[in-house]
Each structure stands twice: as structure tokens, then as C-alpha cells.
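I hope you will forgive my troubling you with a question about protein structure. The matter concerns a single protein, recorded as an amino acid sequence and a row of C-alpha cells. Please examine both parts with care and let me know of anything in them that strikes you as inconsistent. Thank you for your consideration; the sequence and its C-alpha cells are set out here:
***
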Amino acid sequence: MKTFHSFRRQLLICAGLILMALPAAALDRTNEVFKIFQFPPDKIPTIDGQTNDWDIVPESYVIGSDQLIDDMHHQTNNPKHLNVRVKVGWVKGLNRLYFLYEADKDIWDFSRPDLHNDIFEIVVDGDLSGGPFEQEFLTNRDIIGGRWDTYLALQNVHAQNYHIFTPAEGKDWCMFWGPQQWVKDLPYANHAYNYNFRPGQSGHLVLEFWVTPFDYAGMDPKRAVESQLTENKIIGLCWAVIDYIDPNSGGSNNGFWNLSRHHTFFGNADQLCQFKLMPLEPQFLKSLDAKWTFTIVDMDRRLVAFKDQSIGKIASWKWEFGDGETSTEQNPIHTYTKAGAFTVILTVTGADGATSRFARVWDVTLK
């Protein structure tokens, strides 16, 4: 019986030959955009394996077994055998993707210390750079110096692949398919499980975790560049549920169900799905909330550009720049005549006459 590694290697080689002959493809399922829930900053999930933090996530964000596809000719997944639900979240200002994976399964297989284990595999491409990212898919590996030089230089550099054991018992929670082993540990990732079954038994699994997506992630974390997560941004994301049911079956698996229509998404970011970093749901927004930020355009000239980021239906703006000058523009540019640290205040007035104020104390400091 073929091992999982030899089978996967043959699949990678075949897929690599196909990729050499074809132009790069677009993201898969391009008529669909899956949603990533934005958690308010006071409701960030605690990674403890409990699901109550996720109760605020609407059902429309849930991605279940009915969305998964198998292009490997396994048997069709029966929800009575395996039923999964996945929620994905983010927090504005944090470059993290939060996951809640829940699965009910009639036979859990996780007794062995090797790759033979029920698995939740995810791939993240935070900047939609696309293209192959595993060494067998990279057509210039002979130029670079061969398989392992390519692996060490380029694998998972612009997109990241995590094999997460469900559950992990007596071994690391995740097998990262690349040389950047640091990405699966704090401060770049965190995880927690909750289950009460043993190998071979049925039961309900809760896996809660977060990972950091990277535009560039080489072997040295000091050179890494995190993907910047911002509202309404589209990222590439996909996952697979890999099902084992026989501890004596070597590397073979019973099912490999993907969110993408292409099993080879695990090495080609062109085959990921579109996920949108959603704004806050309406129930978490204030009807009127003054917010602003700024950029020092020219320190020598003391030229500062202010940007309104207020929420709500706003009728007017009043800026107080801390030097006695004011403005009623929405996004003013102001020149300070002297050095100093200034308290800048924005007061916005809503259509109904209500007001909201936001000040930054000494954030604007000029020499």
C-alpha cells in the first residue's frame, strides 16, 4: 500500500508538470466570497477550547461539511460519519486569523505519533500573491540547487500550509509543511482543544486556534513580513479535512475533502478560495463615534494630514489642532508654526444633532 508521503509526492510531481504547461489560474470558486467575522476589540476570543466566545458570530459565517468537495475519488462524506463546522474571525489592528473548528465523528484516529492522524489542513495567502509555494510545484528548483535548496528557500514563503492534528495527543499540535517551524508557536500562533473521547471512539471535537499570515516567511523570523489585515480586504484561504479510520492502513486515508475544487490547493495558492475580512456587524457599531488618525507629511515643514475615520451619519466636523487653530473640513491638512506635542480633538455632529468627541493627547509631536 502506498504511503501518504509517496502518494502525495507523486501527486505533486504530476501537478507540477501540469503547472509548467498551463498559465497561472485565478482563485477557485470565484463566484463565491466567504466571510471572515470581525470581532469587536472587547470580545476577542480566548483560546481555551470553549465555544461561547463564538456565539456572537452569525450562522451566515459558518462553513460546513456541505461545502467540502473531494476530487480524489474517495467515497462521498456522510454527515453521520463526519460532520464539521468552521468559523473564521479577525480583529481590526491584529494580523491574526482566528478559527473555531468543530467536528463530530464516529471513529477518531489519533493514536499514532506520525502523520497518520485525522487532520484539519489550512492554507493562507494573506496578500493574494498566488502561484505555487511548495518545492515540488516550483519549476525553478533545479536552478536554485535542487529539491531541498528550493524547500529551504521558497516553500511556504508567500503562502503558509498548516497540517493540524485533530486532536494532537503526545505530539505537536501542527505539522507545518515548510522550514519556517517558528510560525506555529507563540507569538505567531496559539491553539486549544476540547474533547473527551479516545482513539477509535466517537465524539465531538472543539479546536480553537489563531495563526499569523505572512507576505514573506523565510527560515529567519527576523526577516518575516506579516500580512496586513484590513477591512474589506480579500485574502486567499482554503482548508481540507483529512479522514483516517484504520490505524493499520499505513499512510492511506479514507477521505480528503476540500473547500477548493482542487486537491492540489495545498501547494498552489491560485487554487485557494476568496475570503473577505468583514466590517463589524451593525449590532456592534455605535450610531455615532468620532475617530481619526494622522500622517506627518513633512516633519521639517511641520505639515500634518488628518484623516477622519468616524462612524455614523455625520453632518459636520470640527477639528481643534491644539495650537489654537481649527478646521471644519473632513480631512484637513494643517501646518504647525512651532515645535511641540499637541492634543488634537475631533468633534463630529450627527444628522440628528448628537455629538461625539475623540482626542489624541500628544500623539502629534513635531520638532
User: Anything to note?
Assistant: The longest strand covers residues 94-105. The chain has two domains: 4-277, 286-366.
